[in-house]
């Protein structure tokens, strides 16, 4: 069997465009499997902490965006834009009204990093989905270690295997994606060569996959 198509995704849990990008990637992968069932795909998720300086307990969500955007009208317009984009591009419903805190995501990324090292791909996927839903749909606090451990347990992980990775002190997460925030997220890398930045359509992501496979095939012919 040929080497798997390796796809790396750089993201943060608090970025709605990352959730939208995840849905578009899922659509692109479904189309790839329909046309190239011979291709195995290996996904690797890298955490990028967009707001590493937030306190461990986070900050009030509404106050954060009011300071960031300058007025309540600007906040309403931005949130409406994101909701419309999420619904149109990915059929997603994002409920900003339920989000009480802008969390420090350092521990959430540490949790996923450890889970990826010990869990199955299906467990990691379930954990990703549950963490995104916790923030964008359920209004749960991703900065709270107890909440994170309960979410992980729901996905089949033993809390005892993860608890030592949670600091609970707001310490920034510096994983493989250190310094990646400057490139923007989501950020996709195909076969460690071809990069695509931003919340692109499924068509764009599928095109990148096909280009990566074509490049590999061409290199194989030259070998």
UniProtKB/TrEMBL annotation:
CDD domains: DsbA_FrnE
Record domain DSBA-like thioredoxin: where: 7-166
UniProt entry tagged with the keyword Kinase: no
Pfam family, one: DSBA
Keyword Isomerase among record annotations: yes
MF terms in GO: isomerase activity; oxidoreductase activity
Organism superkingdom: Bacteria
The entry's keywords: Isomerase
Database matches in Gene3D superfamilies: Glutaredoxin
Name assigned to this protein: Predicted dithiol-disulfide isomerase, DsbA family
The organism of origin for this protein: Geopseudomonas sagittaria
